[in-house]
From TrEMBL:
GO terms for molecular function: ABC-type transporter activity. Coiled coil: none annotated. The lineage of its organism: Bacteria, Bacillati, Actinomycetota, Actinomycetes, Jiangellales. The keyword Membrane applies. The keyword 4Fe-4S does not apply. Belongs to the ABC-2 integral membrane protein family. This is Transport permease protein. Keywords: Antibiotic resistance, Cell membrane, Membrane, Transmembrane, Transmembrane helix, Transport. Residues 38-271 form the ABC transmembrane type-2 domain.
Length: 273
């Protein structure tokens, strides 16, 4: 892959200049996606396939209080879709590093915040498209939000907030791992983290220690919160994490961002030293 976008040749010292650079670099990522529509399409449709598999193959064996399993599953899969962004981000960053694209961009007079922001903005646009596809699929299989528009949009806002945090985790891990081959370890970890949550089943059905870990998983916080905001069936454990799921869904991504955004910026600055 070659970097074909034209990046400004002056130092971006002002906020406006950094913003222009970030938009330009966002365009570079989007142009790259246009050249490989097949992989983008697979990434968008894979969560839909999981909804169909879990909803129709296993849904009959799932007992959900106060509703259908599909209404419980779709918010969980919306949350899992945000997690899948971490995997794709790691692969994208390591691919750029391995092919020398990252070093070529580093040689240009562009600030580190602009470079990382460009990658983050592109990922959030991808997340928004993925959410739209998943919502359409959910509506087609019978899922719906039973709350008003404002609460429904608040639920989507929590999902994008979680994806924003995972974006910085992915950028940092991609810069640390550097090669697509080493990034396979992240792919192996994504699935256990995803399944160790309330995305598919209630933590109440798990062994005590495993259920506790699942309860405090950031994915569980967001999945539980958006089920509440959408008026979908939820699990009813009496604990702080469940009763304050919306608060926890705001806190977890903030903590991840505060930790991994500076780490990503620092790792980018020392890359290649």
């Amino acid at each position: 892959m070659t970097a074909t976008a034209t990046v400004t040749t002056r130092p971006s010292t002002s906020a406006a200049g950094s913003l222009r650079d970030a938009i330009t670099l966002t365009g570079r990522v989007l142009q790259h996606w246009k050249r490989r529509p097949g992989s983008i399409l697979i990434g968008l449709l894979f969560p839909v396939l999981m909804v169909l598999m879990f909803g129709y193959l296993f849904g009959g064996a799932m007992a959900v209080p106060d509703g259908k399993y599909m209404d419980f599953l779709v918010p969980g899969m919306l949350t899992m879709t945000m997690l899948f962004g971490l995997e794709s981000m790691v692969l994208a960053v390591t691919a750029d590093t391995a092919k020398g694209v990252t070093e070529r961009i580093r040689a240009m007079p562009v600030t580190t915040p602009a470079i990382l922001a460009g990658r983050s903005i592109a990922d959030l646009l991808n997340a928004a498209v993925g959410l739209a596809v998943m919502v359409l699929a959910g509506l087609l299989v019978g899922w719906t939000s039973h709350r008003d528009l404002l609460l429904t949009l608040a639920g989507f806002g929590l999902l994008i907030w979680l994806r924003f945090a995972f974006t910085w985790v992915g950028i940092y891990l991609g810069l640390v791992l550097k090669t697509p081959e080493s990034a396979t370890g992240v792919q192996l970890l994504v699935w256990p983290v995803g399944f160790l949550s309330s995305a598919f089943v209630s933590p109440e059905t798990m062994p005590g220690w495993l259920g506790a870990a699942s309860t405090w998983n950031p994915l569980s916080a967001t999945a539980t919160a958006i089920r509440e905001l959408f008026g979908n069936p939820n699990w009813h454990a009496q604990n702080w994490a469940t009763e304050h799921s919306i608060t926890l869904a705001l806190i977890w991504p903030a903590v991840l961002t505060v930790i991994f955004l500076p780490l990503a910026a620092r790792q980018y600055r020392v890359l290649g030293r």
